[in-house]
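LOG
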Amino acid sequence: MPQKNLDLFFFAGERSGDLIGAPLVEELSHFYHVGGVGGDLMQQHPFELLFPTSDFQVMGFIDPIKALPSLIRKFRVIRDYILLNNPKGVILIDYPTFNIKLATALRRRGYQGKIIQYVCPSVWAWKKNRIPKMASCFDLLLTLFPFEPACFSETTLSTHFVGHPLPHTLSQHHYNPDWRQITHLPPHTPILALFPGSREQEIKHNLPLLLETAKSALKHDPHLHIGLNLNHTIPLPERMHIIPSKYRYELMRDAQSAIAKSGTVTLELALQNCPTAVIYQMSFVNRLIAKHFLHLDLPHYCIVNILANQTLFPEMIKTPPTPESLLSAWKPIHYSGKPRETILNGCQTIYTSLNQPKNLAATKILEVLSSFPT
């Protein structure tokens, strides 16, 4: 529990929110006493912790139901803490279902501070009914992608594209030139990077497929080595190497190509010019829910392809991928040729569009907070 009242309460309920929130905490902690729910990156700056981000990480459609009792208890603790301490502002990052409910509950109970949502939910894809709800309870919406403010053009909600923090995060990363030696990867060998995910369930769903595909890739190319981003040891055949997350950006930068689960990692890979084949191994039940109840039928699901408005990264999400189909999708992006050249040009365009001034989000928040009565 924070030792004294917070000026700004942050909520980041997943790893991507921690990544996005960290630069904001760094900027705003110069002006305000900040804290709330955050991850390891946010806690590298002055930040008083109420709950860690890891307490809220669930995925798919079934896992959140299992975690519901715990989430409800924490929701009430957070709501009551904010109402009791009355911070000047509440900054909610990503995690839209929880955040919209929290903002609505705070307004109904008379909270008068500013409520800011940082990261727009995918209202351009589904749940467009969230738009009026968000307009009624948020004072400011900051978006990561340039096409999102148009979704709110018919509302009074102040909405601003502030760029994505990833270009700055990547530019500030201290590249370790010895990472190959440390992880036993031979120098100058071509690398296929594998990113099965960071959560236990993601790894369980994705890793078997990635390993089978990688084995086929090794048979296809005797010079290839595999870099598997994983934080625990498992038995691996020759030319496969475990790369802990400490060196994940080194792996992305030096890999010739990658296969990754859908999510923020695909954008990280695009911004490091690493052509990637994208998967999302959903359970049978989750796939049925997505297809028949949520009616998710978009031209693209990977954010890289949505930003490019074309298929840069081959996606294997609509139908369950096999090692054979994944290998076929991977080959054209790994080896020199027109498909790879198109991908690299598209990645550079995305980098330029998302690389806005680092402090733009903090500036917009400070403008809104300046109207808070003293």
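LOG (cont.) second protein
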Amino acid sequence: MRVLSLALLLSSLAVCGCCGNLSAAPKPPLAAIHSGGDALARAPYMGWTTWNLQDVHLPQYNNKHWLNATNVRAQADLMHRLLQPHGYDYVNIDSGWAGPYDMYGRPLPDLKKFPGGIAALARDFHKRGQKIGIYWIPGVQRSVYENNPPIYGTKYHVRDIVAQPPVAGNAFGDWHMKIDFHKPGAQEFIDSITRLFASWGIDYLKLDGVGPGSDSEVDSRDDVRAYSEGLRKTGRPIWLEVSWRLDHQHAAFWQKYAQGRRINDDIDSLTPKITGWSQIMKRFQEAPLWSEDAGPGKGWNDFDSLPIGNGSMDGLTESERRLVMTFWAINCAPLYNGDDLSKLDSFGLKLLTNDEVIALDQAAHPAVPMVGGAHQVWRADNGDGSYTVALLNLGAEPATVAADWSFLGLASVQPVRDLWSYTDLGPQRNKFQAMLPPHSARLIRVGRPSAVSQRTPLAISGLKASSRYGGVQLSWNASASASRYIVRRSRSAHSGFQVLNARVTQTGYLDRPAADSAPYYYQIAAANGAGASAMSQPVGAAPAREEHDRVISIDFTGDAIAMDQDEVAGVVPAMHWNTAPCRYGGLPLVDSAGYSSGAWVQYDAGGTFATPIPDTAGGNRMMRGYLETYGHDTTKITVSLLPPLLAKYGYDVYVYCDGGNIAATRTGKFTIGDQSVEVTDNAGSFYSGAYAPASASGANYVKFSVAKGDTFTLLATPVSSTDENLRAPINGIQIVPHAR
């Protein structure tokens, strides 16, 4: 995106009265942790973006209302059905998803557009093998600077990290202010944002308005480095794309810190058509300069979206649309469409789903130019003794375009295959030439793979499926020549298999389907640039349905160190406790497997204590700290947007309330809805490795039952005390689903 909508983030910022000095940075919970590493960018990504429809000058799309969860979900459904079987799996939400900022100056979704937040979409998309991306820009928005919130997990505030005197933080102007990354707290601020994004389950982050480039002298390299480092620290494989029209002088930097980079202006024409031929021609100005810079370990040159699915909307002829797909694929550019997928025409669908052309893109052997000018020839070394060649007529008149075998270092007679028509053209002597209409292309494979090169991978072996928390875990043995694996799923072992994910690069896959107890069946094929193996024999397993498979646990730590991810606490032993460090604020919540739940906690207390409540009898603990009340104040905690299964079947709420009491006997009242329970904490009582309910001596927790609904509010009110300190502490909360 180049022209930024002011609707992106213009909103008020809620500021908290967070504890001012944190002794150690709490470790926020992460979303699902997968091994990414080099596999993340082994090949360019494929998917769909919202931006073309947001930017096309048609009233049904180009308005402030079109970008919303309903419309994005509808396009994702269509992508799942039409394009995902061919490898398209990213659903990227561009500018306009964000609303307010949280108490730490971090962006939150606009809940009017996305009622369940980004996490709800991520959860649904992941269940069917899709990935989700969002958009962001460098710098600190001016309103955040003026409100000066604390930086999560530090003693610093936002004004402490902004460059002085303030200057523009990105190519969109000075409404975002530049961060000085030499200042303490600056990297921590970015880390807090990337952790938040990871907790939602995002898989892709587009960082826009980056320079040098973007029609701007702004230098965003420190920002890119910081976001790259922040994403790495989350432990979640998240693709970082930097944009737009980046300066080639810094190609090595972009290669080091991002998986992909936009090297051109936007492809959008800012008219009632998505693009036009003049916008396409701009790709040819920059592509030769960057052609040697793409590949595995280097990242990918992004030419922008593929507006080729609907001739009436795209602004291109059929020949031009085929040329676009040809040029993107032979250069191994990311393949992401931006059309209204409900209006794809038959020609556009054929272009987007030609598996031989897609395989060329995903084989990760980018092309280099052989002949320039109006009649271009590009060639890609397939790495197996053969070449793929694109012949392009960029001129306004028909022209003969030829590729000479001597340029390829090949013998005089070579077999040729036309990738667009799936046709073997037979042996060709010395060269291949074709008369091309204006703005058209041919795409051919020349030569045959060498004898030692395997045409297609061998079938996989050792496929296993096992029940896991919330899903089915697949594992299999590697096929030696495979570059990716295709996963198919069905509810029957005999028929009905559909592609779930066509771009798996590991020898394992966690499928998180709808939560039910019926088995799913799976097949795997190994694939590379030459094709795919036969499908494996199906194996099946049912998602694990433990009673407590959706537990959400919150630890009110004060300024204490957060619980380690492998620490277990609570009446219902659960890992992955959410860390709430301040006396009031808001926090997105993960579940006990570390996955984003989509839920949110908002809380307000008189104070917070970092005193951990140790186990006097063993090595357990009752959380790390507690929220506190003073005088007759009432602590209020609201949890909202709970997962649908909890909202439907109900849940228990465990409230832990041990203040490590020494001096006095104190009574507090805890209330949810029309349920109220008083708990007395006797002087000299200590947690001793056991949780005692409110009805027992030495009580340290209260249990409430909520029949249904996605929101509840907990109130904690002091009642009495044998000293002057009225208290009703809350160490933590667990939300445990009812049996289904």
